[in-house]
Predict the structure.
Amino acid sequence: MTYEPVIGLEVHVELSTKSKMFCRCSADYFGKEPNTHTCPVCLGLPGALPYINEQAIDDCIKIGLALNCTISEKSLFERKNYFYPDLPKGYQISQYRWPLCVGGKITLDSGEIIRINRAHQEEDTGKLTHKGKDTLIDFNRSGVPLVEIVTEPDFTDVEQIRDYAKKLQQLFRYLGVSNADMERGDMRLEANVSVRPEGQKELPSYRVELKNINSFRFMVAAVEYEIKRQTEALEKGEKLSQETRGWDEDKRQTYLQRSKEEAHDYRYFPEPDLPELILDQKKIEQIKKSLPELPWDKSNRYKELNIRVEDAVRVAESIELSQFFDDALKHGKKHGVKPQDIANYIVNKKPDIEKVLPTQIIEDIKDKKVGVIDNNEQLEVLAKQAIEENKKSAEDFKAGKENAIQALIGGVMRLSSGKADAGKVKEILTKLLLEIKN
Ligand code: ADP
Ligand code: MG
Ligand code: ZN
């Protein structure tokens, strides 16, 4: 019997609003002296009353709209109760039964659709630092606005997870709602993993939650490890159960943190100190109109101009770069320069868009100062030379490390003084390497 993974993701993103979610403290806490961005509300002192940060709500709606969610005209905050030293109130204000955004979807590069269950508004906890036997607490992060985005269990491999996480990160930056820096913890990922016999429609009765893994690379490794571990266990006829696991990078394996018996009962109930959140359609429409063109809409528009898929995605990478590209397209059209030639120029030459003008690159292309090398024979010669000069990467690629091809592409770019057509180079290198393999 073969098994297939079933994976659902929960992404937390910290919003870059000026103030915190339920008080006026500055939310710009990164690198600041501990416990300087605090007040009775975010310290959870008795009698302190929260009030809602409207900007955070707007940002959450933006995210929801971009993910094709329905925005609830009426939603509610609830208390999620649990005891932990980083949580001064003994509960987190979150949304549970009545979230702000429900039921959306996002399309991956592969064309596969991931359904979004909900996107809701909540607040961050404080931060613990363990020093020897002591634990230090910094409440600067306590109460910083968070949006949690939960998918349906639609992922079946880590490639999809990679693409999804990248798309969300790009979206947050496009919308200007967060820096979405994973290293800094602006964006955090949790995965729920289970496996089932291929063809089975029902979800497995258990799921393993991978938590508190603060690097994207480790998360991918942990998911891969879990798929293998669970598949092997089922093959041996073992029964798997609901649990939470962490990642041990030294041993490169996941380890049990909490079993189902120890699971929290959060005792959610409506937050009595906050009103219901009522929105009218006019406000939602207003926010919808304020959204920029979304990254995937941009790259689709570029694809319609006959730009290669890979390049269309590359020039839509950031809102600034795509703006630059759009301006260049406009000028290019006037001078009869093809969109693909402009895309090639940007992808290969990586102009500094803060210094160079879009009109300048059109002049460059017109003057043929930068003839792109896209002749197959010429490229093949360069590719062979790059492989010759970097046998290690070629071996790595053949051993399955697909990323190793980047070093070889880099080699060809160097040999061609940046003039080679990167998309074609990749094709040719792949072909050559596969030939050597057989
Ligand atoms: P919780 O409130 O405990 O986090 P949710 O119902 O919100 O639980 O689900 C959390 C995540 O788990 C969602 O992303 C969902 O898609 C995913 N999930 C649910 N069932 C499974 C399963 N059998 N295997 C993998 N993921 C699952
Ligand atoms: Mg959860
Ligand atoms: Zn405060």
Notes: The two ends are 30 Å apart (CA to CA). The longest strand covers residues 3-14. The chain has 13 helices and 16 strands. The chain has three domains: 3-288, 293-369, 376-437.
